[in-house]
Amino acid sequence: MSHNHHGGATATATGLRRFALVGSPNSGKTTLFNALTGLRAKTGNYPGVTVSRYEGVTKLPDGDKAAVEDLPGAYSLDPISPDEDIVAQVLDRDHHHVPTPDALLVTLDATSLQRSLGFLAHVLQAGLPVCVVLTFADEHARRRGSVDAQALERALGVTVVTVTAGRPDELAVLRDAMTRVGEWPAPVVPPPTDPEQVTAWIRSVLQRAEYTAAGTDTRTNRADAVLLHPVWGTLIFFVTMFVFFQTVFTVAAPLQGWVEEGFAWLGELARESIPIGWLSSFVADALIGGVGGVLVFIPQIALLFILIALLEGSGYMSRAAFLMDRVMASAGLEGRAFVALLSSVACAIPGIMATRSLPSAKDRIATMMGAPLMTCAARLPVYVLLIGMLVPADLRWGPIGLQGTIMFGLYLLGAVAAMTAAWVTKRLTGRRGVRMPFYMEMPSYRMPRLRSVVTSVWDACKAFLRKVSTIILLTTVVLWVALNLPLQSTTSMEAAGVDTSDDAAVSSYVLEHSYAASAGKAVEPVFEPLGFDWRVNIAVISTFAAREVFVATLGQIAAASDPEDPAGALEQMTVDHGPNAGQPLFTPGTIAALMIFFAFALQCMSTIGTMRRETGTWKWPVIAWTSYFAAAWVFAFLTKNLVELFL
Amino acid sequence: MNTIRVASSPLPVHPEPVAADGRALLWHVPVAVPLPVGRVAAAPGALGELFADATLSDGLVARGLVWLWLSDGRSWRAEGAQVREALQAALVEPQRWGVVPAGAEVLSRVTDYVLAGTLGAYIASHGGRIEVSGVTDEVVEFAFEGACAQCPAADDTLHSRLESAVREHYPALTGVVERPSPRALRRLLPWPTLRRAG
Amino acid sequence: MTAITEQLCARCLASPPPEACDKACSLADLRRGIRGTILGFTAELDPHIARRLFDLGFVPGADAELLRKAPLRDPLMFRVAGTEIVLRRHEARHVLIAA
Predict the structure, then answer these.
(1) Same-domain check for residues A190 and A259
(2) Most exposed of A193, A318, A434, A484 (fewest Cβ within 10 Å)?
(3) Do B110 and B91 fall within a single domain?
């Protein structure tokens, strides 16, 4: 066979040969990448785009190491998305801002060779050394298909290596081929690109390779007859989603509780060991509390990504997207966005991270904009407190409790708001360029590979820790400063008439004279129409770190004896100045306004940090922050007035 | 794939390299096209023009296989697409091809092709080898070497497989003949062999 | 745009002649379990989308079979070129099949 004329794989300046994995999504490319590089993959983004980049290192039999890059899945080098654009650019030597690899490993799915060869025809135009990796040959054989890999090799004019997941001996053959990359043959005549010609070429090659198409996958077919049944399938889907969701709450919540308790214990330890008052508080609350505030997300992220990886790896995710596409399409999104939005009901952060599975960058951004509006778990304590103050527990409409109804209504509001925000974002960003058509491949049901699941979770947690933790830590420190400074000495407090042995009174006094209080008083005019006074404003400011902190902060302000259940103390609070002085602060209108405010406002800095990381820019988080605050204000205002009108 | 085809859609062909000959390419064409067998003397349409203007210097034809040689100074990278299209057009009119007999040469190449393919790989995987010792217009003479020399299945199975594989591309094949070898003689006459003791 | 992309964008997917278009139905008209031979794409279909469908396996001359419809009749799941691909009605309408 003729040898390639492109100098083979010259070692790069760093001494590593660079391979890139190219192939369509679902062709086993990422599984192969994980098998070659293990958990050592480094991730980042390609320059200037929100496309993730995965690069790792593999050890070759000749002792050398080689760099392996997992390019985004692509069906064609005629790109329709930023991901495919990147693939085309990487393969083009003239595009200098993304380095071109020395050689390509092209994964072709044996069960869909007819289509995959079309993509190979594109890749072979690049003139880079190519080795074909034939995947899923075992499934092809199981489905009574056949292909002669050696005849295929002769017909194509490139090396063909068969690799089956879970067969390390085949992987050794591949690594061996990678060592001899300088000898890889190249086709004498590149395949045609004209549609009719390439169809003819594919027919000829398949005939030569004695290819018989696989029969339908009866196992998958039978499963889909139930799982995609209009009635049973939808039912099973909702049950699955419910279980998915409940698992997160019931399994992640205790884990999160342990993390919180652990850090609370550490904090106590710090407080007791450090003699200087303000320093011990700083170390305990700001630093230890801050780190704890970062790590508390890990159980949730890990668990959600395990579940998502299992759904994705087994093939059920595509079925879920198929069932939900019509509903999602009404918001301008597509079926795969459903899982990301659903995940956001636990916490927007893993939900935002889950948007990586969406091929369209515009869909990703639209879904990310919607995610924070879904009623997340952190809003729950706030809602519980406020609903409890608004409506007595025993009030019922027939068999339905009013408290539960309001809660359900708030969840619904979150979902509607999220879909609307996604729709608006899509409209605003979707005007330029061709509207991307929705298409999705339905893979056969497969056993999710443990390694892929582990890699996916590891990847997500690492990314979160590296990029978002700084923001959370910073916010915690800044808030600590705002809420605890200026320091109040014991003498000044006693002079003000505060009983310094009463911790609750002390913390209340500190809060009321803190920088946050000054800020709270400063923004009072803005929030006054909503019925919030400066003390409520302090609590709202504290939610920038995490929404659930609202309850504790309010409790501190109210000098409640039990800050975790301040309802009683809050109901006693009266407006301290202005025209309504003396009247209760938490009127029904104000409470309702507060609930609606929380439904919309994006205070959570962790979410903003994650959005920044996933979109690669501050633009979208800032737009979300400002527009959702504005919406929160407007809707809270309307709510207050409507409630006061009727009550 | 389905057989419905619009009249203009091109025939499936693809090239494979020829060992040790950079100017040649073996083009696989549909076996069903009734091409005459031999050396190309005339070809219809654009293919004929490629011969006429000396882009192509030589061509051999068998069923399903067309060997084409480029003239010196031409490269397949440059001419490949054009040759492909010309070939596809010419295949639509197999009756307009003209050949001069070149039986032995074609048969030899066909046999080499078969032995370099799946059958050869099968034999090699068992440690054997088939050596072609002679080719005429209608007969191929070969010998079993390596593990095949001692293999009892070699005679019938491989013999008939080889024959049908070659005949698929060269219909005029009368048969494949095994060259009488010492092995064959040994079977007829149980000659005592000298064995070293110990 | 890279050189390869330019070359691929120049691909022209000829629509079937108008007479054939009138008599042809589209993928969206198939019934469950019924197979049809793809003729081509309608002239109204954006060429970029037509090329994408081609690259997904919706090739003139290939067979496509409707496997399932989603609960609200959209999207549709087809079997083509050995794979199962989901398309919305909006795109499926533009893929013509022999009646």
Answers:
(1) no
(2) A434
(3) no
In which domain, by residue range, is A299 found?
A: 232-379+404-461
Is A433 a member of any domain?
yes
Domain that holds residue B76: 14-100
Determine the average pLDDT of the residues in C1-20: 83
Residues B33 and B52 in one domain: yes
Q: Which is more confident, C55 or B191?
A: C55
Q: Which of C46, C82, C84 sits opposite A213 (nearest CB)?
A: C82
User: C53-76: per-residue pLDDT in tens?
Assistant: 999 999 998 999 999 998 888 899
Is residue A300 in a domain? yes
State the best of B2, B8, B9 to mutate against chain C, taking most chain C CBs within 10 Å: B2
Which residue, B72, B100, B128, sits at the end of a domain? B100
In the block, residue with structure tokens 């209504």:
A409
Return d(Cα A501, Cα A487) in angstroms, integer.
17
What's the domain count of chain B? Answer: 2
Query: Angle CA(A541)–CA(A546)–CA(A552) in degrees, nearest 5?
Result: 75
**Do A128 and A50 reside in the same domain of the chain?**
yes
Q: How confident is the model at residue B8 (pLDDT cuts 50, 70, 90)?
A: low
- The overall pTM is greater than 0.80: yes
CA A332 to chain centre: 19
Whether residues B90 and B107 share a domain: the answer is no
Highest mean pLDDT, choosing among A10-19, A397-406, A514-523: A514-523
B1 in contact with A, Cβ within 8 Å: yes
Q: Does A438 touch chain C (CB under 8 A)?
A: yes
Q: Which of A474, A118, A167, A423 is nearest to A291 (CA)?
A: A474
- Do residues B71 and B126 both lie within one domain? no
CATH number where C61 lies? 2.30.30.90
Q: pLDDT tens digit string along B66-114?
A: 999 999 989 999 999 999 999 999 999 999 999 998 888 899 899 889 8
The residues on C that touch A, with CB distances below 8 Å, are 2-5, 7-9, 11-13, 46, 48-49, 51-57, 59-62, 68-72, 74-75, 77, 79, 81-88, 90-91
Q: Residue-wise over A287-312: b if at least 16 C-beta within 10 A, else e?
A: bbbbbbbbbbbbbbbbbbbbbbbbbb
* Total domains in the fold of chain C: 1
My answer on whether A271 and A364 are in the same domain is: yes
Are residues A274 and A139 both part of a single domain?
no
Asked whether residue B79 is domain-assigned, the answer is yes
Domain termination site, one of B81, B100, B119: B100
Chain A partners within 8 Å of C54 (Cβ): 118, 195
User: Min CA distance, A112 vs chain B (Å)?
Assistant: 13
Whether cis (ω within 30° of 0) applies to the bond prior to C75 is yes
Nearest to A608 by CA among A447, A470, A418, A497: A470
Residue A130 above 90 pLDDT? yes
Mean pLDDT across B175-184: 69
pLDDT band at A8 (very low <50, low <70, confident <90, very high): very low
E strands, A307-464, where?
396-397, 400-401, 439-441
Taking each helix axis from N to C end, the angle separating A588-600 and A619-646, rounded to the nearest 10 degrees, works out to 160
| Pair (A251, A138) in one structural domain | no
Minimal Cβ distance to A88: which of C2, C11, C68: C2
Both A126 and A259 in one domain: the answer is: no
What is the predicted pLDDT for the residue at A202?
96
pLDDT digits (tens, 9 = 90+) for A292-334: 777 887 887 788 888 888 888 898 988 999 999 998 988 888 8
3 state DSSP class of A168? helix
Q: Which residue of A has its CA nearest to B24?
A: A188
